[in-house]
Amino acid sequence: QKEVEQNSGPLSVPEGAIASLNCTYSDRGSQSFFWYRQYSGKSPELIMSIYSNGDKEDGRFTAQLNKASQYVSLLIRDSQPSDSATYLCALSISNFGNEKLTFGTGTRLTIIP
Amino acid sequence: NAGVTQTPKFQVLKTGQSMTLQCAQDMNHNSMYWYRQDPGMGLRLIYYSASEGTTDKGEVPNGYNVSRLNKREFSLRLESAAPSQTSVYFCASRRSGAGELFFGEGSRLTVL
């Protein structure tokens, strides 16, 4: 089992609707969770970080973490065409005191005008 | 503030040639990383350096070597390039422990 699993998509959502992106992970020792957005040909940029169970909201974005079920999700409300991108889930795994960040394969999101 | 700077941005090599990808950050970060990104594979960790003077293997280290030259610079070397190393390479840095990764713009490498 891969450490971080994401549905590769593509996921198509009408403009103005809610886009829901999901990620599951296998290492229960994971402590920090991140969502990155990557436009085609560009480098990833951080959208949200979440460290404890529950929801974290930032504008139109909400990250949800459930450590017992080992999943983290990202909701995008009022989706805009500019939200069309690949969304990467990432988590920090401690390796003998060293933190390394492991990424999922990403979900390609398309917002349909 | 430049952030993370990678050079070169584009490179074409022939099989068996060697090259070094350079990375420098000006954010006084302790940890630095090299990832490769291939279609459908996401970002895969090649090597990382948790602090100056230390390096550790990631998920796909074979065929690569790294040097943490000082706190600012972390280079990735391909000693004998292979077509399987055709990819986009990203350097990133972060403060120690949990925190955001800051990425460079990427280096697109093609091995013929």
In short:
Chain A has 113 residues and is mostly beta strands. Chain A has strands spanning 4-6, 11-14, 19-25, 32-38, 45-50, 54-58, 61-66, 71-76, 85-95, 98-103, 107-112.
Radius of gyration of chain B: 13 Å
State the low-pLDDT regions of chain A, or none.
none
Mean pLDDT of chain B: 93
Which pair of protein chains has the largest interface, and what are the residue counts? A-B, 27 and 28 residues
Percent helix of chain A: under 10%
Unreliable parts of chain B: none
Count every beta strand of chain B, where a strand is a DSSP E run of 2 or more residues: 11
Task: Tally the helices of chain B.
Answer: 0
How many E-type strands of chain A? 11
Major sheet attributes of chain B: 7 strands, mixed
- Topology of chain B as a string of helices (H) and strands (E): EEEEEEEEEEE
For the record, give the distance between the C-alpha atoms at the N and C termini of chain A, rounded to a whole number: 37 Å
Based on secondary structure, the structural category of chain B is: mainly beta
Number of discrete helical segments of chain A: 0
Derived from helix and strand composition plus strand pairing, the structural class of chain A reads mainly beta
Radius of gyration of chain A: 14 Å
Name the shape of chain B in a single word: globular
Distance between the termini of chain B: 36 Å
What's the main sheet of chain A like?
Answer: 6 strands, mixed
Detail the topology: elements first, then pairings:
The complex is a heterodimer of chains A (113) and B (112).
Chain A: E1 4-6, E2 11-14, E3 19-25, E4 32-38, E5 45-50, E6 54-58, E7 61-66, E8 71-76, E9 85-95, E10 98-103, E11 107-112
Chain B: E1 4-7, E2 10-13, E3 19-25, E4 31-38, E5 42-49, E6 56-57, E7 64-68, E8 74-78, E9 87-94, E10 102-103, E11 107-111
Parallel strand pairs in B: 2-11
Antiparallel strand pairs in B: 1-3, 3-8, 4-5, 4-9, 5-6, 7-8, 9-10, 9-11
